[in-house]
Every structure is written in C-alpha cells, then in structure tokens.
From TrEMBL:
Chief location category: membrane
GO cellular component assignments: plasma membrane
Name by which UniProt lists this protein: Cell division protein FtsX
Subunit relationships: Forms a membrane-associated complex with FtsE.
NCBIfam families: FtsX_actino
Organism encoding this protein: Streptomyces aurantiacus JA 4570
Leader peptide range in chain numbering: none
Taxonomy, superkingdom: Bacteria
Subcellular location: Cell membrane
Role of this protein: Part of the ABC transporter FtsEX involved in cellular division.
Keywords associated with the record: Cell cycle, Cell division, Cell membrane, Membrane, Transmembrane, Transmembrane helix
Single Gene Ontology BP annotation: cell division
Length: 305
C-alpha cells in the first residue's frame, strides 16, 4: 500500500466534506469532554469522601435541665455525673471507637458564639441551655449504627447524631449531577456517531467512481476502505485533542483560579493535575478508535467492495 496515496485521499476526503467534518470534530470534542469531566467528577467525589469521612464525628448529646422540662427523651431528668462516666466507659470499650472528646456546655456555648455570633438568637442563649456532648471519631465511619443502637434511648442521652448523614446528602447530589453529565455525554456520543456514519456515507458516494476503478484493477477491500476509516479517525483524534484541551483549561480556570481561591471552599481537597493527565490518554484513544470503528461498520453497508 502506498502511504502517500492514502494520505492524499484522506486530505481530499476531509476537504470535500469540510462542514460535516467540522460537525464531527465538535460533537466528538464535546462528548469526550463531558466523558472526561464525568470521570474527574467521580474522582473528586471519591477524594472528598475519603477526606471528609475521615473527619466526621458521631455526637452523643446529653440531656440538660431545659431538655428535662421540654423533651420526652429526657423525661428522667438531666444527665448525672454517674451516667456520663458510664457512657464514657462504655464508649472506650467499643472496638469501633477511635477517640472520644467531651464537650462541656461552656465549650459548646463558646463554639456557638464563634460560629453564629451574628444570629439574633445568640444574645438570648446562656451556657446552661447548651448541651454537653461526646464527640466520637470512629475507626470506620460506616459503623455509626453500632453507636446509635448502643446509646439511643439511654438515660441522660438526648440524641445520637451522625455528621456523615449530612455529607451523604451532598455526595448524592454530586453523584446525581455526574449521572446527568453522563446522560448528556451519551446523547452527544450518539449524535457524533450518526454524523460520522453520514460523513462516511457521503464521502463514499462522492468517490464511487474512484472506488469502482480501484476495485476493477484488483485493489483489496482493506485498501479501498482505509482512506475513509482514517478520515474518520483523524477527525475523531482532532476532537479528542480538543476535549483534552477543554479538560486542561477547565482544571486551570475552574479549580486553580476559581474554586481554590474561594475562602468558603478552602477546606475541600480538590483533585490534582495528575488525575486530569491520567484521563487524557483514554480520551484520545476513544477519540481515535470510536470514529474509526463507526466508519468501518458503516462502510460494510454503504461501500460495496
């Protein structure tokens, strides 16, 4: 096979169908950018889970005098020193518990003033209205139910709360957004495949005389089909390259010069450049192979050789 002839045929085919080739490049670029973005979003959610789940606590809130008068769970009165000692002893015996920190009512009041000092309610609260609590760090955050079962309903305990539940709602939202991006990506991918098939069909039809002559002089099917397949592969590779550019620009502008500069988001552990660079070969490979395979199967129907 003469490489020069094949390359010249690729150039001719791309120029003849410039508009459709451009549409293929744009569709492939957008669909693969969404694909790569979805993979990075999944990595980001996993990174955030590992970071935050390692820091979440289970809180056991103890009854105070105000709770004893208002909350049925504290109907037996405020927690006693004996009950607190027993709760602490039982916690330390549990194999799922890593550390236990006791927060007094005065400490809880101080933390509340630091976080919500501007709230209208802060001026009406007093330290004796705040609840004492035990802040428990678990060895495995998934074992919250073990602690909840052991201490919910015990005398002196008002409630057992798991901070992981709040994070789960956030991660479910992020996962939902990720699935939505994948759905849009799938739609764009179908559009790109349809454009590739149509482009190959138009190209094959416009060059039916040349392919007929090649067939008469004994050219093999592979030799005749190769320029069309390579045209689609080149267009897909260009689209894959653009998708890689979108991912790199997105990481640079959205995270490096956007989210990471926000004081409200400085506690989030964002994915690094290594995670982005690791996805680029996959994006390029799909950008190259997907159009080539689509063209190959389309030629079996539209190019009779």
């Amino acid at each position: 096979m003469r490489a020069q002839f094949v390359l010249s045929e690729i150039g001719v085919g791309l120029r003849r169908n410039l508009t459709m080739t451009f549409a293929v490049v744009v569709s492939v670029a957008l669909s693969l950018a969404l694909f790569g973005g979805s993979l990075l979003m999944r990595d980001q959610v996993s990174t955030m889970k590992g970071y935050w789940y390692d820091k979440v606590n289970v809180s056991i809130f103890l009854c105070n005098k105000a709770d004893a008068e208002q909350d049925p769970k504290c109907a037996k009165g405020a927690v006693t020193n004996e009950q607190k000692d027993q709760i602490l002893t039982d916690l330390k015996k549990m194999p799922v518990v890593d550390t236990v920190q006791h927060e007094t009512a005065d400490q809880a009041y101080k933390h509340y003033k630091e976080q919500f000092g501007d709230s209208p309610l802060s001026s009406s609260l007093t330290p004796d209205q705040m609840q004492e609590s035990y802040r428990i760090k678990l060895k495995d955050p998934e074992k919250y139910q073990v602690v909840a079962t052991a201490f919910s309903g015990r005398d002196g305990v008002q409630s057992v709360e798991d901070q992981k539940g709040v994070l789960d709602n956030l991660f479910e939202l992020l996962n939902g957004m990720n699935w939505a991006a994948l759905a849009v990506m799938a739609l764009m991918l179908v559009v790109a495949l349809m454009l590739i098939v149509n482009t190959v069909r138009v190209s094959a039809f416009s060059r039916r005389r040349e392919t007929g002559i090649m067939r008469l002089v004994g050219a093999s099917s592979f030799y005749i089909q190769m320029p069309f397949i390579l045209e689609a592969a080149v267009a897909g590779l260009i689209g894959g390259g653009l998708a890689c550019g979108f991912l790199l620009l997105g990481r640079y502008f959205i995270i490096d010069h956007g989210l990471q500069l926000s004081e409200k988001l400085n506690l989030i552990n964002f994915i690094g450049w290594d995670a982005v660079l690791a996805k680029l070969p996959l994006v390029l490979a799909i950008g190259l192979l997907m159009p080539a395979l689509a063209a190959f199967f389309a030629l079996r129907k539209y190019l009779k050789v």
